[in-house]
Design goal:
- By secondary structure, the chain is mainly α.
- It has six helices and no strands.
- It is rod-shaped and about 90 Å long.
Length: 146
């Protein structure tokens, strides 16, 4: 029987990220002309044109503010700037920490279950023909983290 309160919250969060739920999103308030200008300045006009796949005059109209910048253009540049890459790196580090936590949790759970099996095997008083014999192998599937 699985008791939900015995599982750490981070373990449950990790299970949801593995199933493909995308938890990494760009800021919702991103998209002003000032943000767009900063991103084009950081990347350079040539790289921004290459990433967006638009004509130079279109980019200049967006930068001047005479035409509203589409959200897709802001998001495309966002993920290529240091701001977007920092968000991706931070999320990756968090996922790695959660994976290490899950590995340690599963190791301790495995050790606890092996001790329970050993206690059950040692506590038998009378052997019978149908006595359950537990066989297991304690293997290091993952190397211990330092």
């Amino acid at each position: 029987m699985l008791r939900l309160h015995s599982i750490p919250f981070n373990f449950i969060y990790f299970a949801f990220t593995i199933k493909g739920v995308n938890l990494l999103t760009a800021p919702k308030k991103l998209g002003s002309i000032y943000d767009f200008r900063n991103m084009v300045f950081q990347l350079g006009e040539a790289k921004a044109l290459l990433l967006l796949g638009v004509h130079r005059t279109t980019l200049r109209r967006w930068l001047s503010g005479s035409v509203k910048v589409p959200r897709y253009a802001v998001l495309a540049l966002y993920w290529e700037t240091s701001w977007g890459r920092a968000l991706v790196d931070a999320d990756r580090q968090y996922i790695i920490a959660l994976m290490n936590y899950q590995i340690e949790y599963l190791r301790t759970e495995n050790d606890r279950l092996i001790e329970a099996i050993e206690a059950l095997e040692n506590s038998r008083k009378h052997d019978a023909a149908n006595f359950p014999i537990f066989t297991y192998r304690k293997a290091e599937v993952f190397p211990k983290t330092v």
